[in-house]
Design goal:
- The structure is a single chain.
- The chain has 378 residues and is mainly alpha-helical.
- The protein has two domains: 38-170; 174-378, no CATH class.
- It is built from 14 helices and two strands; from the N terminus they run H-H-H-H-H-H-H-H-H-H-E-E-H-H-H-H.
- It has a two-stranded antiparallel sheet with strand order 1-2.
- The two termini are 34 Å apart.
């Protein structure tokens, strides 16, 4: 029997197993808890005032729209994971050390959680201070509110981290990708209803809905093909070794470059006029960084799994997969601008949703392929 047939048989047996049902039950419970937490209001906040001044739309994350205890949610953990992944890719000795032993991987996991909690503390402080400055939003903006609200926000972030780890260890697929995909689900559930309303008012170009549908079909097809595990040298490889992470790292890299530039301009007290096509430059930079990180991930996979693949082959694989991811990102942004719809289609959200669902149906033996919640990195 060929490797492909063996893999297909293993996948079929896995979907019919009691272990799959148990893990599916745990995953559903964790996602339900994540959704319920977005409806628990933050202490001392007037929700009606917030809705009136925030302009929250149905496409906004429920936790932020309601200022719940999950208002910062998974963001600190995502930031910590992105920081680690960038370091892991750019510093090969660090990657080899992390992959060298179970103890090293445990240390990495603890450091990521510690950095995430530290980020949550800073974000909670900034959010509560900003809320206290808004007239009428907080009933009593005193020390008690600052203390209780910050503890709730930090506790909510810790619960989200726990849900990620619960899915990673006892659930299906990647916990981080599944929690991140909740926003994408909200966006896509409101996508075509918003399109029909704007089309009726004549605010979208003719045939715009068909373009969006074509974009989604092509993007989903390309992502599924690139994410399918293939057996080489007895080990599972993916053509897109990084899943949605090259796009996320590209966006984060652009934000870091822009922040450093802004701090340098501010500290040197320079007067700088941004170029007219600055948005276009930013999109091009994110696309370029996406390709770079796809190459680095292909090289990292080659370094970690070994096999007969050469460096040139890994680089070519990264260039092609990164270019496809960058094209998905850019096409989504172009559709967004053409239809004048905020948060309509973002390549990262499409990739997150498709790959998160795709990996739910894979047996645990393939979860260590690519960067996700089951990888050695997290």
């Amino acid at each position: 029997m060929s490797d492909a047939n063996t893999q297909q048989t293993a996948g079929t047996n896995w979907l019919a197993s009691a272990e799959f049902r148990r893990r599916l039950f745990v995953t559903v419970l964790a996602l339900a808890a994540f959704q319920l937490g977005q409806f628990v209001p933050l202490y001392g906040v007037n929700g009606d005032i917030w809705k009136s001044i925030s302009g929250a739309s149905p496409m906004t994350a429920a936790a932020l729209a309601r200022l719940s205890i999950f208002a910062i949610g998974i963001t600190p953990f995502l930031s910590a994971v992105l920081i680690w992944e960038a370091l892991r890719l750019c510093i090969p000795p660090l990657r080899r050390w992390a992959n060298g032993s179970t103890e090293a991987r445990t240390i990495v996991q603890r450091v990521i959680v510690a950095v995430a909690i530290l980020c949550a503390m800073f974000q909670a402080r900034g959010m509560t201070v900003a809320m206290a400055d808004i007239t009428g939003l907080v009933s009593a903006p005193d020390t008690t509110f600052q203390l209780v609200a910050r503890l709730e926000l930090i506790g909510g972030a810790v619960v989200c981290i726990g849900l990620v780890r619960l899915i990673d260890r006892h659930g299906l697929g990647s916990g981080l990708l599944l929690l991140l995909s909740t926003l994408a689900v909200i966006q896509f559930s409101n996508l075509f209803s918003g399109l029909s309303q704007l089309s009726a008012m004549g605010q979208t170009p003719e045939g715009y809905g068909y373009l969006v549908a074509l974009y989604l079909i092509l993007s989903i097809g390309a992502l599924l093909l690139m994410d399918r595990p293939r057996v080489e040298d007895g080990k599972a490889h993916r053509f897109n070794a990084g899943g949605p992470w090259p796009i996320l790292l590209g966006s984060t890299g652009f934000s870091a470059i822009f922040l450093c530039l802004a701090l340098a301009i501010s500290s040197l007290k320079l007067i700088v006029k941004l170029p007219e096509p600055f948005t276009e430059i930013g999109l091009a930079l994110i696309a370029g960084l996406t390709v770079v990180f796809a190459i680095l991930m292909a090289l990292a996979e080659r370094d970690e799994k070994g096999g007969k693949r050469t460096v040139s082959r890994a680089v070519l694989q990264g260039v092609v997969s990164g270019t496809i991811l960058a094209a998905i990102f850019l096409a989504g942004q172009l559709l967004l601008y053409a239809g004048q719809l905020p948060l309509l289609t973002q390549g990262a959200n499409v990739a997150i949703l498709v790959i998160a669902i795709r990996r739910i149906f894979e047996p645990p033996t393939s979860w260590n392929s690519g960067f996700d919640g089951k990888s050695q990195a997290v």
